[in-house]
Amino acid sequence: MARKGEKKDRSAIIIAIVAIVLIIVMGVTAGQREKLTVVEKWVGNVISPIQRGVSAGASNISEGLSSIFNFNRIKKENVELQKQVIELEKEITTVQLVRDELEELRELKFALNYIEDGVKYSPITANVIAKTPGNWFNIFTINAGEKHGITTNSIVMAGNGLIGRVYELGDHWAKVVSIIDNNSSISFQVQRDADTQGILTGSITNELSGYLFDPLAEVVVGDKLITSGLGNFPKGIPIGEVIDVAKSSDQLLITIKVQPAVNFNRMGKVIIMTPDVTYE
Amino acid sequence: MNKGEKKIQGFIIGLVIIVNLILQSTLLQYFKIYNVLPNTALILVISFSMYSGKNQGAIIGLSVGMLQDIIFGRIVGLNAFVYMLIGYFVGLINRKVFKDNLLIPVALTAVGTVLYETVNMLFLCFLKYRIELFNVFKKMLVVEVLYNSIFSILIYIYVSKLFQTKKKKRH
What we know:
Chain A is α+β, with helices and mostly antiparallel strands. Chain A has helices at residues 2-29, 38-69, 71-111, and strands at 121-131, 139-142, 155-158, 161-169, 174-178, 185-190, 193-201, 208-212, 224-227, 238-247, 254-260, 269-275. Chain A has 2 domains: 70-111; 119-280, Thrombin, subunit H. Helix content of chain A is 36%, strand content 29%. In chain B, helix 1 (2-25) packs across helix 2 (40-72) and helix 4 packs across helix 5. The two termini of chain B are 12 Å apart. Chain B has one domain. Chain B is globular and about 50 Å long. Chain B: The chain crosses the membrane at residues 7-27, 33-51, 71-90, 102-129, 141-159.
């Protein structure tokens, strides 16, 4: 009888000890780490190629199916895109005029010995191989890592907007935290008015919302937001469009809701911008 | 013979765990409802430990959680901790319930999901992550509990077949 009780206690004690060890591990790994341990890297190196294969297959199938079912929509989209191309071509001609002026000004900048604030970035293209199986965070993995020259806090973006930053990385894979993640925040500015700035945060329901620094600033629905250059992200990357503006009840803050430019449910290829260290 | 069978069984469980992690992170992403992913890892831990007892349940939970934490986690050990405890407690009661009743996995999964999210929330709160209580309630405690419970029936039937064929062979 006593022996039985002893045996029962033993497994409970082991569980308790392991639980405490895990809590300690949690405490140690809670912040962002510069380097992963060998075990973690190795596990990722083994599993990520399989994930890559499966996700490529799955996305191919889903794309094929959706293109069959959405044939009409694609047709409409095609017409719209053609219209857009015409508009963009018009815009290019005007932009070219502006560019000439800009070059002149740049030369002037050099003459005035202006301090260059930009860091150069070298882009790498990678595929999204898997997304987090939990519901708390919005993390996904990509098939590029240390061996490809990317570092932690590299900027990840799609062709049309900001996606997130590299959180931790292994040899051939990296974890990316997206901007709609519960705990990420970015500083933004309104594209048409560089002085209107604020902070956006993600949420567990995958919505971007935020507030403006200046309670008297004017923001309207449809305003395009870009990164402001404060914090991790360089200036000028598109974030999204304002879909809702609300003045909070105490009239001290303007809160906004933002529709991200990138569709986070359908990410295939991403661009990783690594700050060029040699430039410094 | 018994030992060999156990080895094979352990191998199958390990394989299922890895395949589940891969599917959950790739294919299942297309089956999100209201942006909520079914937590098949949790359901697998519950179903496996229903059949294999508390010690194995705890080990299975620990390895499932650890794998998930290493590849996707922001905090290593969080999922491992929760899954291990859930595996252990489900294993504790495995002799006291009728395994043929399909209501059992549904009820256990619902309770397990609530427990999982609550412990997660507590730890994230302590680690100074932002928590929006209303959204957590809506997303995790309503949609995810329902979704997981429905998924649990499918997985439970599969797992019970896995274990029952083994038992029949022994006779």
